[in-house]
Amino acid sequence: MEFYVVKPGDSVDSISRETGISPEQIIYDNQLLYPYKLAVGQALLIHSYVREAVRAILVSGYAYPYINSQVLADTLPYLSELPIFSYGFTMEGELLPPPYGDDQWMITEALEFGTLPVLTLTPFGPDGNFNNQLIHSVVNNPSYRERLFQNLLETMDEKGYQGLDIDFEYILPEDRDAFSAFVEQAAQTMRSAGYRTSIALAPKTSPDQKGLLYEGKDYRALGAAADHVLLMTYEWGYTYGPPMAVAPVNQVRRVVEYALTEIPAEKVNLGIPNYGYDWPLPFERGVTKAVTLGNVEAARLAAEEGAEIHFDSLAESPYFHYTKDGVTHEVWFEDVRSLQAKFNLIREYSLQGCGYWQIMKWFRANWLLLQNQFYILK
Fold this sequence. Notes:
- The chain is an alpha/beta fold.
- Helix content is 34%, strand content 22%.
- It has helices spanning 12-19, 23-29, 69-75, 104-112, 132-139, 142-159, 176-192, 219-225, 249-259, 295-305, 336-348, 364-374, and strands spanning 2-5, 43-46, 53-55, 58-61, 81-89, 95-96, 116-121, 163-166, 196-201, 228-231, 268-273, 276-280, 291-293, 310-312, 317-324, 327-332, 353-357, 375-377.
- It has a 9-stranded mixed sheet with strand order 4-17-11-10-9-8-7-5-6. The protein has a 5-stranded antiparallel sheet with strand order 13-12-16-15-14.
């Protein structure tokens, strides 16, 4: 397993001659499109296949019901769990089905691949955003909680779900303890029915970290209650923020190190973004809005625009600039080098595994790299 960083004058054929890997395999593994343009600085996976191997870590990947069926089929062999996004609920604890389409086909497909389908529960309001008043209403009312848990059990049993994932964000600080009690009760209810419970955690770096994303989540209590947790170690670079790496490894490390003071490593999964952002420049807060793009799409964009890809040594993430229609853009995304840095953290800290937000775009090199890193030969 190697990475090849494209130099000026390189082509697929010249890289093939230098590495001894066929052009066809380089093209396939890296999802290159004819006429196979490359960007200077682009990192290519140079790969020998691992066959007859078993996964040695937990791997999950969120997906919406409108995911392309071929992308899902290609990804499922690499996943331990498939959290399907997402069910909601009313102020009184009535469960609401996903607004994005029917989820049954995904559950059936996951089970056929031996992947556990997981029901993701989110407090989305009518506007499609996280609503902390929904959280406040349910976590503080015993009858609403019971109604929600009963609804969940009935739906999971009827549809074939094998676990519950709780993704609540922007919890009010005054609901911190009530939310922890809610998760503990949810996990006990699920265990009694044979289901596991996971929870998504905002990326805290200290117990008293300020901000609505952080103050309502007690890492120690939630880690003790749930069967495992996902650290949402992404979105430093985000749609409305300034251009920067989505998941800078120096910041991700700080989150992991704090989490391990509160939660056992064997319960902790590292969040990994499967996307990047394209910002128009200059950035103006409240005005500038980045466009989301896939990692393969980002590399193709750099090649098409003749942009050189650079690699930030602190964030351990690739980025590039290009100009189109008189507007300069800055793009940050993930490649095999930035993924390797994150996989190194999983190994360094003996974490349980990783979870992807999200798997809607197929990134073959990621899965081949993960397989090489965390599969054990039979």
